Every structure is written in structure tokens, then in C-alpha cells.
Amino acid sequence: MTDPLVARLRSALGDDAVVDDPDVLDSHRNDHAKFCTAGAPRALVRPSSTAEVVEVVRAAGELGVPIVTQGARTGLSGAANAIDGCLLLSTARMTQILEISVEDQVAVVQPGVVNAQLSRAVLEQDLFYPPDPSSWEMSTVGGNIATNAGGLCCVKYGVTSDFVRGLEVVLASGEVVRTGRRSAKGVAGYDLTRLIVGSEGTLGVVTEATLALRPAPEAALTAAATFRSIEDGIAAAAAVMASGLRPSLLEFLDQPTLRAIQDHRDMGLPEDVGSMLLAQSDRGTRAAEDVARIAEICTAHGAIEVAEASDAEESRMLLEARRLVNSALEPLGTTLIDDVAVPRSQLITLLRGIAEIGAKYDVLICCPGHVGDGNMHPTVVFDPADAAAEARALEAFGAVMQLGLRLGGTITGEHGIGTLKARWLETELGPVGLELHRRIKAAFDPGNLFNPGKVLL
Ligand SMILES: Cc1cc2nc3c(=O)[nH]c(=O)nc-3n(C[C@H](O)[C@H](O)[C@H](O)COP(=O)(O)OP(=O)(O)OC[C@H]3O[C@@H](n4cnc5c(N)ncnc54)[C@H](O)[C@@H]3O)c2cc1C
Q1: Block means of pLDDT (10 residues each) for the chain, length 457 residues?
Q2: Ligand 1 centroid vs 143 CA: distance in angstroms?
Q3: Are the folds of 97-215 and 221-324 the same?
Q4: Per-residue pLDDT, 35
């Protein structure tokens, strides 16, 4: 017998928009997070328009079927994972760039547009959409909005929320709300746009976004500096940020990460290197001058060596080490990627503390990160065949978050809570903050239709 939800959605959206093939459903159960459970979905639906999303939300709501909205499922917190009996609402067919306005410097898009697709389209008009998560070739604008994604150039330009002017959202009631505005300024009412950004699919389905653009940046140049210690590298990063320069990228790699990269591919990194800093300036004709100043600052902070790129190809080569992080860590074992962010003044204490946590729990913790934002990705690596090592890795993962909080930071700078960190959320928000979150969720979604069990337990 056909599932009544599937039958209703097929009649409203057409047969090919609704999938109940178990193999396809199985392949859509998970995002990229490890250690997050995923349930068995009831069906997958791919609406093409806001009106179709309304149909889907109404049908699921009336039948009491929870909805998990999915973009590209590159999330790292389990927020896009299926729950048992849910309807997966994929934005894979909502891929239109509806408008690019040079005059207003905005783009209006459907949520399934892939970040890189938008970035390339606006660049053709000499415009720039800065949010650039490393997953930009895969992840969707809707997913970036729902996770408030960051990226490499956030250090200069800000994160996704800084570029979302307005949203169209389908609410649990099936009503459509437009939040925010197209104009650069506007303060009427509560900032519902910012509330929905980062809400991880728990408050509604984003069906359209109006995004602010910037003039395209000029060509970027890169400097790469190696240091004997973690402390020297962090101190140099702090000095670069305090110098008045505005690097368009400032990334850090610690010794365990550099060793993994060197083992993965010979980049000629000497054994005694304790850390590496990568910095970029995208100020065109002034980039060479900026990079030279960054090099001077690094040298003054004890850099062993500083390489300065003189063109785009050399810049690309210098950034190669950063790009290799994921592929270098994967072969070492299972990776549990943390995402703490602290005030920059606390970074040295954070990194020392992480080394102590690694020693205490006897696990390898590699620590690459967006040092300019104080956002590090301590990555606990362990042997998945060793149950004791796995237990210690999870303890270490929690200890890193506690340390980040003690230092005035957050348990997640950009990857979100999902299910991975839901049990730690109260530690950061406190009981009053958590209760307020619950009331906000209830105001938007009284029947707990959207992504139940994510963010809020
Ligand atoms: C290799 C790799 C590198 C990464 N690098 C970064 C990085 O540099 N910075 C960073 O911040 N993240 C990074 N991530 C994490 C991930 O790419 C981001 O969280 C991204 O924003 C998720 O987008 P997505 O389209 O894959 O969304 P999904 O994973 O499908 O969904 C993420 C969340 O958004 C919700 N959602 C999706 N679309 C909508 C919508 N239209 N309306 C309402 N809710 C919606 C989902 O329900 C879920 O809660 C990386 C991931 C990988 C695998």
C-alpha cells in the first residue's frame, strides 16, 4: 500500500519529485559528521518552488511527519541527518539565481544554489560574495545560511550572517514570511533574519535569500611563515592582526598537523617546525607591500623562514599545505573535528591546554584553524578499532569545548550544534538562555515539525 504522505506529495508535486526507494533514502541519511546517529527516513521530496515547499510542509504537518531539510549534506554536526520516520526535504531542485543587481549590490537566490556557483556568477559582474566555507564547491547557500557558515576570508569580510539581508521562509503553519529587506539599512522590528541564520533547519525552510555583495577584490598574494614553536606562530598572528593590516586570510597549522601533511606529501617541511602561518592580502597593487609587512612581523616573532608569493601561482602553492589538511588527517584514523573559538588573546592558552588534554587522554590532537578569528579546529584522531581509544577521544573532545568556554569562547565557531554538540549547549547558554531558545522554537514551530532533536534536545 502506498504511503499516504508519498501519495499526496506525488499528486501535488509530480511522481519524480518524491522518492521512496530504500537505497536512495539510505544514501541521504547522513551529513559529513561522525558520531551522529541517523534514522530511517520515510521519503525524500525535492520541491522546486516556494509554493511546492508550502505543499510539502502542510502535508507533513497534517500527517504529523517531521521534516529534515537538506542542502548538500556537507554539515559537520549531524544537523542534516535523518531521524526515524522523517520526510527529507531536499533543496536540490531549488537552484535558481533569481537576480544579480549591480546597482543594489545584491543577489537573490533559491536555497539550493551551490556557494561556488553563486560566487562565480557574481564575479562575472565584478562582484563578490565573500562567505567561502572550504566546502564551497559542494555546500548550498541555504545550508550556509542555516549554519551561519564561515570560511577562510571571514577574517576580513565576516561570516554568512553579515551578508544575509533578507529571507523568505516557509513556517511550520505553511505560511510564508519575508524577513529583513533589500536595502542596506533597516531596523524595523526584531531581527528575524539573524535569528533564522544559524538555526540549523529548526525554525522553518529558507526558500529564498537576498544576499549582500561587495565589489570584487583585487588579486591576492600570500605569505607562508614557519616557526619553531606554537607560541611564536600564534604571537605573530596576533601581531599581524594588531598591526592595522587587514589580511584576507590568516590560517594556522600546528606541528602535529604539519607532520601529517609532510607524511602525506613531501612539502619539504623540516622536522623541527612547530607551527606555520599562512596570510593573504587581496589589495591588488598594495598586496605585495602588505605581504612584505606580514613577513617582517613574522621575522620579528622568530620565524624560521618566510616565503612570499610574487604571483597567483606561487600563492596557490603556498596555500597547498592548508588545502591538504583533511586528506592528510584522514589516513591517520577516525577524526573528530572540534570547532572552538576564543578571543585571540586566549589562543596560546587554548593551544597549550589542548596539548595537555591530548597528553591526559593519550590521543593525538591536530590543531589547524582560522587563527585570525580565534576559531580553531582541534581534531582528535584515533584508531576506530580501539574502543578504549574512542572513549578517550570523546572525553578529549568534550574537554576541548570546556576549555574553550573557560577562556571566554564558544563550543562552535562555525559548524553548529546539530546532534553532535546538543548535550553541551546548555553549558554555553546557561539554563535561562536555553529555556529562551525553547520558547523561541515553540513560537515558530509549536508542533516540533522541523528537525526535532537537533540543536535542542
Ligand atoms: C570538506 C568540508 C569543509 C568544510 N568547511 C567548512 C568551513 O570552512 N566553514 C564552515 O562553516 N563549514 C564548513 N564545513 C561544514 C559545511 O560545509 C557547512 O556547515 C555548510 O554550510 C553546510 O551546507 P550544506 O548545503 O551541505 O547543508 P546541509 O549539511 O545539508 O545542512 C546543514 C543544516 O542546514 C539546514 N538547512 C539546509 N538547507 C536549509 C534550508 N533551505 N532551510 C532551512 N534549513 C536548511 C539543515 O537542516 C541542517 O540543519 C565543511 C564541510 C566539509 C565536508
Answers
A1: 93 97 97 92 98 98 98 97 98 98 98 98 97 96 98 96 98 98 96 98 98 94 94 97 95 94 86 92 93 96 91 82 88 93 97 96 96 96 93 96 98 97 96 98 98 97
A2: 4
A3: no
A4: 84
Closest CA to 278 of 331, 225, 205, 202: 225
Q: Does domain 221-324 have CATH number 1.20.1250.20?
A: no
Residue nearest to atom 2 of ligand 1 (CA): 135
Residue 32 Cβ < 6 Å to ligand 1: yes
Report the pLDDT value the prediction gives residue 311, as an integer from 0 to 100. 81
Q: How many residues does the chain have?
A: 457
What are the phi and psi torsion angles at 211 (to 5°)? -115, 135
Give the Å distance between the CA of 177 and the centre of ligand 1.
23
Domain ranges of the chain: 4-90, 97-215, 221-324, 328-406
Residue 326 pLDDT = 87
| Phi, psi (deg, nearest 5) at residue 339 | -155, 40
Does ligand 1 come within 6 angstroms of the Cβ of 322?
no
Q: Just give the CATH number of 97-215.
A: 3.30.465.10
d(CA 53, CA 32): 25
Q: Supply the pLDDT for residue 436.
A: 98
Q: Where are the beta strands (DSSP E) in 289-430?
A: 305-308, 334-337, 364-366, 369-370, 375-376, 379-382
Q: Top-level CATH class of 4-90? A: alpha beta
Q: What CATH number has the domain spanning 328-406?
A: 3.30.70.2740
